[in-house]
Amino acid sequence: MNGKKGSFEINIPPEATKSKLPGTSKEGSIGAFSSCKAWIWSVWEFAKEDSNRVKFALKVGLAVLLVSLLILFRAPYDIFGTNIIWSILTVAIMFEYTVGATFNRGFNRALGSLLAGVLAIAVAQLAIQSGRVAEPIIIGISIFLIGSITSFMKLWPSLVPYEYGFRVILFTYCLIIVSGYRMGNPITTAMDRLYSIAIGGFVAVLVNVFVFPIWAGEQLHKELVNSFNSVADSLEECVKKYLEDEGLDHPEFSKTVMDEFPDEPNYRRCKSTLNSSAKLESLANSAKWEPPHGKFRHFFYPWSEYVKVGAVLRYCAYEVMALHGVLHSEIQAPHNLRFTFYSEIQEAATHAAELVRSLGKDISNMKRSPKTSLLKKVHSSTERLQRAIDVHSYLLASNFDPPDNSSKPLTKLPVTFSTTQYDLSNPLTEFDSNSTENNLSQTNQNVPSGTPPQQTESYHEMMRKQSRRLHSWPSREVDAFEEEGGLGMDFLPRMKALESTAALSLANFTSLLIEFVARLDHLVEAVDELSKMAKFNHEGV
Questions:
Q1: Which of 262, 349, 365, 498 is deepest in the core (most CB within 10 A)?
Q2: Which parts of this chain are annotated as the region Disordered (predicted)?
Q3: Which residues have C-beta within 8 Å of that of residue 436, sequence separation ≥ 6?
Q4: 129-144 b/e with 16+ CB inside 10 Å = b?
């Protein structure tokens, strides 16, 4: 080395001396920044979806701050002492998202605290008069009895709405009676804590009512109107896709279930309508506690009727979900067969969706408008669909023959329908004898005269297999039929049954649509009853 004989030199680049370990500090900081950015974006989207969420959070912070000032300032703390902490607990427990829910929770809180305080004072006085030996025994037995009775009563079906009140009775009684036993003055302890609870409840109600109030009645009103629009949009979306779908690009059913049909946004909205029963009932129970406000200016507003209308609407939404099931089922009617009844199905669905939107608009505007003309349109379009199915019922089963033209006139079918797998003059049996021979005769004309016999037969065999592949349902490779023994005697009856099943898919879709229209009568009656009890204004007033 150093130029000496027999030595050699190794040059190591300076970059190689630096160890490049994965997950360096720079890469880690970039990953943390990206995850933090994604989290902030998700929070922003969540707040943007409903601005009331931000208002609710700010109101809770304001209410807690106001009651905390009673502890931060010296004068209120000298009056109430450590019992003022109960006001903070009351605000944190009592403050709810809507005004009605806050009133409901406040009523349970006030009634439970009052009953617990009275019981605690009575039992404490009885224990004190019984002597020092019997005092802890009486207090222990009373705690056991109160805990058992309140826990049992809150499970009673008719008392479930007051479950929070029984819970308040339990922990308020236990805290007052135990702390009063140690401090020696249960009456003073109970009164101070009741005052603190009253202050917390008063602050919570004032902030919730006068600072950006969120009314449960308005939430219920908007939720029901949105449900009407969701059902109407989902119905139109489903029918449109069913009529325009040619079956060229059908994903696997398992994939569509996992993805929940991402190309159908209205499907999820309709699905949420089916799951809105508990939400509507909760909002209705909270709205009953609210005073007259906004558009709801009279006492004893019929909030329970909103729940009934929502139940009837879900009754209709079930049919829409069933239509989606037919749309994404494995067994599908040919596109040309669906196109035969295109105008009738489209007209019935359009008029039904228009009626549903009109009902939702009346509830939104709190107006009463006559629905006679819309109902007549819906019923007439549905009757036309039923007549069309009756006239062309032979298309829905491959073993039926078309009706006699002399006894009953038929409406002219579209020209495109003549190219479908369903021959209007005869079912599949005529296909094997006529259409195949026509194809073979055309191919014979196209085959040159010098073609060897073996090549001609192979070409004929290829055309025959192609024809069989086109007219087989479900779509299967020809080799699968060959492995099963070829075209046996039972092949044609089996194919007729399969084709009839595919055609009956259309009959199932139309029957569900007709059932949806039939259920609209109940929906109109429910909305009319709501408009009468809520005293909606007549249209034009």
A1: 349
A2: 427-456
A3: 464, 467
A4: eeeeeebeebbeebbe
Distance between CA atoms of residues 210 and 199, nearest Å:
17
Region label for 6, one of left (φ > 0), alpha (ψ between -120 and 50) or beta (otherwise): left
Mean pLDDT, the chain, as a whole number?
76
Distances (CA, A) of 347 to 104, 197, 359: 48, 62, 19
- Residues paired with residue 538 on neighbouring β-strands, in sequence order: 368
Q: Which residues contact 499 (CB under 8 A, 6 or more apart)?
A: 398, 421, 422, 428, 473
Tokens of 48: 């943007």
Query: Which 8-state DSSP code applies to residue 367?
Result: E
Q: Is 25 exposed, middle or buried (0-12, 13-18, 19+ CB in 10 A)?
A: exposed
CA 495 from centroid of its chain's CA atoms: 40
CA dist., res. 316 & res. 414, Å (int): 32
Distances in whole angstroms, Cα of residue 179 to Cα of each of 97, 113, 114, 445: 33, 15, 17, 108
Cis peptide before 474 (omega within 30 of 0): yes
- List pLDDT tens digits, range 275-331: 888 899 999 999 999 999 888 888 889 999 999 999 999 999 999 999 988 888 877
